[in-house]
Amino acid sequence: MEYLLGIDGGGTKTVVCVEGLTKEKETRQFFYFGAFNINGQGEKETKKTLDDIDRQLKENGYEVKNCKGIGIGTAGISNPVVATFLKEQFLKREYECPIFLYGDQETALSAVFESCYGMILIAGTGSICFGKTKGEEPVRAGGYGHIIDDVGSGYAIARDMLTAIVRAEDGRGEKTVLTSLVFDFLGIKEIKQLIQFLYKENRSKKEVANLAILIEEAIRLGDKVACSIEEKSVNDLYELWKAVHIQMPQEKNLALTGSVLVKNTRISTKLIEKIHQEQKEMNIVVSKEEAVLGALRLLKKDKKERKVLWEDERTIFSD
Questions:
Q1: Would the pLDDT of 122 be above 50?
Q2: Terminus-to-terminus CA distance in the chain, angstroms?
Q3: pTM, whole model, 2 decimals?
Q4: Residue pair 176/162 in contact by the 8 Å Cβ criterion
Q5: CA 207 to chain centre
């Protein structure tokens, strides 16, 4: 059976969707793998994930020669090194079909809006706001990594929580229930153990960001420090949206996604209210759509629009 292959590569999880092309109907099958983020995990880990994908597809009867197109959404595709590496890996695996590369923010947007146009604000482990309208250059704000950016994200919330804990410990800040919540979550009893947890070799930003889930419980208990951190997150995310909207003021569709905005309803509700105070006509949806579906949607769109280029050579398109 001929099929299209969509890949959403992340720093901790990769989602693959195989869309079968038959005369009767389209069929979809999903598979889940490890990391696929070259910038974050390196080439070795990405090669392993590609090997796992190959093996799983073959076990399920999907032959390389029957693949009619691949759409890949992942971070860092604007980096020529990443694009070249992916091209080499798929050619090595004898794929004869064209391969399209997309930024993960674009696939997330396209998964929500059928037109593939609009704005999307993502707040998960990291954060970014991205906007795209027909005939114009895409716009973005944020997304520069946890060291200098990723405001309002799970990592940023967790970092602010941990800052509050150590400030409370040495007297620079007020006492907070976050201390006991974080200690219980990690199974530790003192600050020294917290520092050991944070600076352990290979500690991932995802593991740190996981602590952000505790902010809701702290707020429920009436903790003022936690309330301030939540408010800061809302304001930071609002600024990301505004920076993009200023550059595309006619756009009225906005999707909110990522673990912070999907799971923390307090933050998403407050953010929506804040945006609507300025733009009452803004259509805002909180989305749980898999970004891999956006990769497939963009793949089919580009297949239709750029078909003439496919007849001569295998081409890697990198937007």
A1: yes
A2: 29
A3: 0.88
A4: no
A5: 16
